[in-house]
């Protein structure tokens, strides 16, 4: 009993002490808990509502992306149409042919990865993703073997062989090279007793864009086996070898070169061998294909290739400057300039940038002044205004080929037995370039003879042409509405531009 009481008492004391310290009754605590629960439930409820709204938003986003994806897939191949879907890192939509053009379009762009389309937007292959060095304006095409690579140990020529895969089609690479002034690719070989070539045996080479083996590891002379030290004549065993690695010294050496023949690049395969010795080691580092500069077309385009360089990509008929005149050419821009059928000449079109033709006549019945340009009084036509009636001189407005024709009637004195003549010359800058005359004897009453003079002549702009009587017998006259006409047949554009 005593024990129980103690326990009971201590329980009561415990309860009491709790009640006293909290200052609440059990009912009050329960009430508090209920309130807490309701508040928690409300909070949870609004959180759930928020989450549900987020899920709806996400679902909408996914749907939007799916529709974008479908739109993208339906536009195969990716062309200018889907350029907006590609975008550029700057958020701006430039898919130009080279980094250089991209930079020109927006000088504020920084170096980085960009989409370009060297073979032209909307034709040929899809745009490619390249590194643009905006400081130099050069385009760099990435490949899958950019880090330093060990060739291992093997004996035979080319026993190590690695294909290099570029992140661009060969067509796009060739188009980029065509558009660029220069392209180059660096190649470094770190070697210990790993000659590229020794004792007349070639162990290492690279393959060019056509798959052909090449043995020059720097420069642009494809007909020699050399490295940069061979060009600079400072190889470790110069002049016996043209590459440091070829020396065969059992020390770490390196050949560091830049290959700069844009029509052979890029390196499509690297082949190494003779790394058999225990000490032998060969490690190569192949740079990206870098192209910069551009082929400038100055003056008038002379071919489909010129048009392509300027940026034309729509296949069709174009007018270009031929050898001496504007000609029509069919350009198939689905092909590259080096492809067969890229260009087809269709013949020339006559060109007169200034319409020039005239027909002038003389009203006065008789004319017999010699050694002066024959003046005219009426212009039936004088398009281009090149013919000056009062001076009788025609001034060529453009360099080109002109045609002139004169007809007139010569009147002879009645009943004359002696030979009489009237000769007319066509003069170019004071020098006769053609004659026509008529002579008669034993003339009868109203004896008349027609006189015709024609000439086709190449003139420089500013040249002057006129007619003058330079042979005349007394009494002979020119009369009956003589007519002088002429026109520009074809302008010589290569001259006038
Ligand atoms: C390679 O090009 C493709 C498009 O042709 C691009 O999606 C990809 O990101 C590029 N890869 C690298 C490493 O730049
Ligand atoms: C290339 O090298 C060979 C051999 O040294 C030389 O005969 C030739 O002229 C060089 N070609 C060019 C374009 O430099
Ligand atoms: C030219 O014609 C005029 C008038 O008809 C005449 O007087 C003159 O003698 C002629 N001159 C010549 C060289 O025939
Ligand atoms: C055009 O000019 C060139 C260059 O002077 C010349 O060779 C050619 O014969 C000229 N052609 C014509 C039609 O005048």
Counting helices, strands and paired strands, the structural category is: alpha+beta
Small-molecule binders: 2-acetamido-2-deoxy-beta-D-glucopyranose
Give the CATH architecture of the largest domain: Sandwich
The CATH class of the largest domain, by name, is Mainly Beta
Count of the domains: 4
Considering DSSP H and I runs of 4 or more, what fraction of the residues is helical? 10-25%
Low-confidence parts, pLDDT < 50 over ≥5 residues? Answer: 1-22, 73-86
Strand portion, in percent?
A: 25-35%
Number of helices: 8
Biggest pleated-sheet summary: 8 strands, antiparallel
Tag the structure with descriptive keywords.
single chain, alpha+beta, Jelly Rolls, disordered N terminus, binds 2-acetamido-2-deoxy-beta-D-glucopyranose, 4 domains
Write a structural description.
The chain is an alpha+beta fold. It has 4 domains: 1-74; 142-292, Jelly Rolls, CATH 2.60.120; 304-348, no CATH class; 357-491, Jelly Rolls. It has helices spanning 2-22, 26-73, 83-86, 99-105, 170-179, 228-232, 304-310, 493-496; strands spanning 112-116, 128-133, 138-141, 149-150, 160-163, 182-192, 197-198, 201-202, 205-207, 213-214, 253-259, 269-272, 281-286, 289-292, 316-321, 326-331, 343-348, 357-361, 366-367, 378-383, 387-388, 393-395, 400-411, 420-428, 431-440, 448-459, 464-472, 477-491. Strands 1, 2, 3, 4, 6, 11, 13 and 14 form an 8-stranded antiparallel β-sheet that branches. Strands 18, 19, 20, 23, 26 and 28 form a 6-stranded antiparallel β-sheet that branches. A hairpin with a 2-residue loop joins β7 (197-198) and β8 (201-202). The chain is elongated. The model is unreliable at 1-22 and 73-86 (pLDDT under 50). The site of one 2-acetamido-2-deoxy-beta-D-glucopyranose has 4 residues, from β2.
